[in-house]
Design a protein that fits this description.
Radius of gyration: 21 Å
Strand order of the largest sheet: 8-9-7-6-10
Structural class: alpha/beta
Largest sheet: 5 strands, mixed
Helix content: 40-55%
Number of strands: 10
Length: about 375
């Protein structure tokens, strides 16, 4: 299901995080089931005979709507945040708003792919987020995933801090959305690999995840990636441990499918009659669910070249500074297979999303 980012009043384009239309100044809210914006009156909208209210975190830039019979006054995305800064830590909460924006974008993509999203407050091991700041109390925050909970340091939302880390670690790409996509890959490895056959295939491609993670971590930060890492991995970090290789590959699958979907929705395609890139048209699809991985990666190869050229014309680095070699193509094919194997219908996803919450109000750090 594709998002419809237009103001319901003036039909002006609006970004997915918009609270007020920049053209007509109407207050608007985002309705997840239809992927559309609706106008608000006294903080609510009537949609198909049901009342939807603004999320209780709207003051911190959340524009999602909450169903009148929802188990909490927070939207589904905000419900998934298990820990957040204290209410009086306004500096950290400003950083939280930007991170939550990236999280909402992640959740929309996961929903579009038909992936199950079961909250931490619904079942043990469900998906949840601890979004806390190392700058609030001076204690380090370890970004990572454990038993369904993804931890993000809100300080990473600061451009200068994130860029300094990117340069120091030698990473070509580092964003909050990228972190979220990587960490959610750890979550879905356990969710989507449902039998011994799938685990065996996964280990054949990525390696045996049962090997010591602690030893692999120590080795990686002592000696770095092998000099020939680019021959079989999508990134240097993917070489550290089979868990990280899977998560990195999963993240790139989300990078690729998300960008191709956006290109399709706004009508970008490569016309062979005018482009000097190739001899046949490239028309990206909104969904590659029923397409082989070869179609997805071929479309991405040519579109990413075009995007990289556009970035370079503005003096920036490549939009997608990675090379997909044959072993990585096989890994992406595996991810494509498990993601598209049995996607949930919107109704099934909605049932999971609206399941009763048992943990009460969001905790603070």
């Amino acid at each position: 299901m594709t998002s419809q980012p237009r103001c319901p009043h003036c039909r002006h384009f609006v970004y997915l995080d918009t609270l007020q239309c920049p053209n007509c100044e109407a207050e608007i809210g985002y309705h997840i089931p239809t992927r559309e914006f609706f106008g608000l009156r006294h903080g609510q909208a009537v949609i198909d005979g049901e009342t939807w209210y603004t999320c209780s975190n709207r003051e911190w830039a959340c524009n999602w709507l909450v169903w009148e019979n929802a188990p909490a006054g927070r939207c589904f995305s905000c419900r998934l945040t298990r820990r957040r800064p204290a209410a009086d830590d306004t500096v950290a909460l400003e950083k939280l708003a930007k991170t939550e924006e990236a999280k909402r974008r992640l959740l929309l993509q996961l929903a579009d792919l038909g992936l199950p999203i079961v909250g931490w407050d619904v079942e043990k091991g469900g998906l949840g987020f601890d979004l806390i700041s190392s700058l609030s109390d001076g204690k380090p925050v370890t970004i990572g995933h454990s038993n369904g909970i993804i931890t993000i340091d809100l300080a990473e939302s600061l451009d200068d801090r994130r860029e300094a880390l990117r340069v120091r670690l030698g990473e070509p790409y580092r964003t909050i959305l990228g972190h979220l996509r990587h960490e959610v890959g750890h979550y879905y490895q356990n969710v989507l690999l449902t039998d011994d056959e799938l685990w065996a295939r996964c280990r054949e491609l990525f390696g045996d995840e049962r090997t010591s993670y602690r030893d692999a971590l120590k080795r990686h930060y002592s000696f770095g990636a092998p000099s020939d890492w680019h021959e079989a991995f999508i990134s240097e970090y993917a070489t550290m441990h089979p868990w990280e290789d899977f998560a990195e590959t999963f993240a790139h699958y989300l990078h690729i499918t998300g960008t191709l979907q956006t290109a399709a929705v706004i009508g970008i395609h490569l016309d062979a009659s005018v482009t000097n890139l190739r001899d046949t048209d490239v028309v990206p699809l909104e969904s590659y669910e029923n397409e082989p991985i070869q179609r997805l990666l071929t479309d991405w190869e040519w579109l990413s070249q075009a995007f990289n050229r556009i970035n370079r014309s503005m003096g920036f680095g490549d939009l997608y500074p990675f090379t997909i070699v044959t072993p990585v193509r096989h890994k992406l094919a595996f991810v494509h297979d498990i993601v598209t194997r049995a996607p949930l219908s919107p109704g099934e996803q909605y049932t999971l999303a609206m399941a009763g919450a048992g943990a009460g109000e969001t905790e603070t750090s």
